[in-house]
Structures are given as C-alpha cells and as structure tokens.
Amino acid sequence: MTTVAPSEETAETPHSTEQQGELHWDYVGDALDVLTAGLAPYVENQLKSVFGEQWMRQARSSFRRPREQNGSSRQDEFVWDAHSTLTVMWDQWNAVFRQHLGHYERSLVSELREFRNRWAHQRQLNFDDTYRVLDSIERLLSAIGVDNEARMIYERKQELLEREFSDKINERQMRAHNNRNKWWTVGVYVVCCAAIVMQMMLAWSSSGYLIAGFVVLVFIYLIYQRLQYEPVVYGPRECRKCFRIIYTPDCPYCGRKRRGEDSK
Q1: Following DSSP, what letter does each residue of 174-228 receive, concatenated?
Q2: Measured CA angle at 19 (ends 15, 21), to 5 deg
Q3: N or C: fewer beta carbons within 10 Å in the chain?
C-alpha cells in the first residue's frame, strides 16, 4: 500500500513578513505537490519492475535513518512525498533508473533535492530560484512522459512570470503617463499665468504690477509642486486575479486560494 502525501506536511508555513518571499514559497510548495503526484507512480512502477515484491524494502533502504522517511511506520505502507520520491530516485538510480533516463535527468533530481531542502527549512527563495524549480520540475515530468502534470507546471511558470513583470510594466506605464500629464499641466499653468498677468497690466497700468508679481509667484509654486509630484504606484487597488481589494504588491488571497484548491 502506498500513499502520496502533500508537501505541506513536510514543512511549516514560513513566518516571514515579506509577501514576495511567501509567494515564492507557496509556488515551490505547490509545484512539489504536482511533482509528487506525477513522479511517485513512475518511481513506484520502476521499482516494482526491477525488485518485484521487494520494492518497498529497497525503497526504505534509501533512507539512512528511519525518521528520514515521512509518513506511516507500517511495513505494508510507503508514503510518497517530494522528499521520499526524490531520495529514492537518487539512491536507486544506478539499479533502476539509469536504463531509462540520462545524466541530464539525474542532474535535475539532484537540483530539485537541494531546492526541496531549502524550501523545507524555510530558506529565502527569490524569483530566480522559484522559476528554476518550476522549470526543472517541468523538464523532469516531461522526461518521464507525465504530460498533464508538466502542463500544470508550465501554466504556473507563466503565472509566475506575469506576476513578476506585470506590476513592473504597469509601474513604468504609470510613470510615463504621469510625466506626460505633468508637462501638459505645466504648459497650462504657464499660459494661464501669462494671460492673467497681461490682463492685469493692461487693465490696471502701474498699480497692477504688484498683483501680477504675486500671481506669478503663485503659479511658480503650483508648477514646482506639480513637478515634485510622484504617482502612487502601490496602494489600495483591485487584484486582477481574484478581484479583491489589496494593499500590497502581491495578492495574499490568490496564493491561499491556489493552495486550498490543490490540497483538495
């Protein structure tokens, strides 16, 4: 009897207050769940084809200490999660998997083991790390012919790229739009100021110079304030994914919703 365990049982939720780090942590955790769902049946079938009924015993021998295997201690049950799947695949490579996979796939397994350990110990994962994990998982799943799970990871990669770069693109567009509006506003101020001053000088002769000077100073102050204005890039706004009002660069609701759907 075998069981596929979700990755969140292997590590606790990070306590970091940085939304971006938590988002990347969620992406890696979800991807490890997809990896387990696609890779564990393949690993088990390959072990059975080589060791027959002794496959579970051979799989357990890949763990140097009994506590390294997460899950039930029953002899008739083997729990698959990202840790156990990658560990067994790495340890049994020469005996089982080298006939079907090459050095490139072995390097992917090694890399994913390292990133999985970093994820489980709540170490910092940036955008580059997260994208590399997803890309390596997609490549490994494609190599063993698990197309559905590989497609899921591909879609997560595209979503990650969209989240990473859409806000940056929007920020540049907002700043460019603000700069265009800024100079249009300055031009309107200058024209209005010139028109008012000329009207005062023509209507009030010499007595209008003081008032005209005051008007010029007011418009200079308004122009200065307009040039100093910077647009608010982040603030209360509607998330493009879940349509909720958020106050941070990354939506905290989307990550929670995605994790809840995958755990069902």
Answers
A1: HHHHHHHHHHHHHHHHHHHHHHHHHHHHHHHGGGHHHHHHHHHHHHHHHHHHHHH
A2: 70
A3: C
Q: What is the mean pLDDT of residues 188-194?
A: 78
Q: What is the pLDDT of residue 154?
A: 95
Dihedral of the alpha carbons of 241, 180, 176, 182, in degrees to the nearest 10: -90
Beta bridge partners of 78: 2
- DSSP-derived 3-state class of residue 99: coil
Q: How does DSSP classify residue 8?
A: G
Question: Is pLDDT of 15 > 50?
Answer: no
Q: Could you tell me if 178 and 141 lie in one domain?
A: no
Residue 103 lies inside a defined structural domain of this protein: yes
Residue 7 — pLDDT band, cuts 50, 70, 90?
A: low
Looking at the 3D structure of the chain, how many domains does it have? 2
Contact yes or no for 58/47 (Cβ under 8 A): yes
Give CA–CA dist 170/178, Å, rounded: 12
Range of the domain at 221: 172-245
Q: How far apart are CA 122 and CA 244, in angstroms?
A: 28
The separation between the first and the last C-alpha atoms of the chain, rounded to the nearest angstrom, is: 21
- CA geometry: angle at 90 spanning 80 and 141, to 5°? 65
Question: Per-residue pLDDT tens for 131-168?
Answer: 999 999 999 999 999 999 999 999 999 988 888 777 66
Q: What is the pTM of this model?
A: 0.63
User: Is the same domain home to 130 and 84?
Assistant: yes
